[in-house]
Amino acid sequence: MAAARTYVDFVPSHDLVEDRGKHTLVVNLPGFKKEHLRVQIDNYGRLRVSGERQLEGGQWSRFRKEFQVPEGCDAGGIRARFEKDGVLNVTMPRLTPLEDDPKAAADAAADAEAARLAAADAEEKKRRDEMEEDARKRHAGDEEEHASGEGEDAHHQAVQAASAGRQAYGFARDRSRSGMVRALLLAVAVALVGAAGLYARYRSMDPSAESETAPADGAIVSLFDY
């Protein structure tokens, strides 16, 4: 006859985590394996999680825990999964996911609007900077063109002045030459007149000389199945 088992009962630690799409029952079962556990649900919406495993010296460790499935959950969609680190996760999906928290939604909308305004401000600043840079370049180009035009005007005026000076010098030189010629001609004429006078005087003194004439110039896993 086999000896009766001796059980050591314990209560595992657990937690119920909620989000907008489901509830998740998290049970901590260190030392257990998947084949030591059983997960069941009855017609009254009660969820039962139980298990047992052998300890040293012929003793057995066991537990049994019941939970009420939260209202609004889909009983046919409940699934359990045992993780390698000794944690059992039982997920209970909501029939209708919760709507977002109005305050959280308002905060998210405000953050999105603030980000949009910041981006718009940055774009507007960039556009203004580009316009200012274009205006500065155009202004610098206008000044350079104006300075170039003034230089060309000054050069043109200098050329005109030099030309006028050459013309004046030439005119003065021509006038000087003309005056010299006239003076020379006058001196010649005076000399001729004087000579003529002398000759006439000589002639008048020499009654014997013959008469003569002077010459002319010009850019999720299902419930455990055991």
TrEMBL record:
Compartments reported by the entry: Cell membrane
PROSITE patterns from the UniProt entry: SHSP
Topology in membrane: Single-pass membrane protein
A single cellular component GO annotation: plasma membrane
Main location: membrane
Family per similarity comment: Belongs to the small heat shock protein (HSP20) family.
Skewed-composition ranges (Basic and acidic residues): 122-136, 146-156
Key words of the record: Cell membrane, Membrane, Plant defense, Transmembrane, Transmembrane helix
Domain of life: Eukaryota
Residue segments, region Disordered: 94-161
Descriptive protein name: SHSP domain-containing protein
SHSP domain mapped to chain residues: 5-111
Regions that span the bilayer: 183-202
Biased composition (Low complexity): 105-120
GO BP field: cellular response to heat; defense response
Coiled coil residues, start to end: none
